[in-house]
Specification:
Helix content: 55-70%
Radius of gyration: 21 Å
Structural class: mainly alpha
Number of strands: 2
Number of helices: 5
């Protein structure tokens, strides 16, 4: 097993010109079951909510909930391990820019999670979901536009 890891890894020589040999090992990126567990769980919850709504006779509401949770699952799957850079220097440079970018991304993620959770609760209570469905749609379209304009490795 150890020889296999070494064969898959890259070695980078950091200090060639100083006479010392300092080697850093970069492990290959692995996407196992843990990478897809939460997105798959979100998709399964969406399917369960859609089936529950269909049994109750609210097929349209179930399809909206399924679409929102499938979009959320796709968002979670896409965002795994994503790094990003600020588009402009409005947030500053270096560590400050990364901190602001992470804070903005975390704020967006929390708001999206709150909208999705509120939508699921409203669906299961047989309450109207109109405003929450629209908010989830706006969040999804905004994310798709930002990804398509900025690209994944911004």
């Amino acid at each position: 097993m150890a020889t296999r890891r070494i064969a898959l890894a890259e070695y980078v020589d950091l200090e060639v010109d100083r006479g010392k040999m300092c080697v850093m090992w970069i492990a290959p990126e692995r996407h196992g079951l843990r990478h897809w567990l939460v997105p798959a769980l979100a998709a399964c919850v969406g399917l369960a909510v859609a089936i529950t709504c269909a049994v109750r006779g609210h097929t349209g509401t179930g399809l909206v909930a399924l679409a929102v949770l499938a979009g959320y699952a796709a968002h979670l799957g896409y965002r795994r391990g994503e790094g990003g850079l600020a588009i402009s220097e409005a947030f500053g440079t270096g560590h400050r820019a990364r901190s602001h970018l992470k804070a903005a991304a975390m704020t967006g993620d929390v708001l999206i999670a709150a909208i999705v959770c509120a939508l699921v609760v409203q669906v299961l209570r047989n309450a109207p979901i109109g405003p929450l469905g629209w908010l989830a749609g706006v969040a999804g379209v905004t994310y798709l536009v930002s990804v398509s304009v900025g690209g994944r490795g911004m």
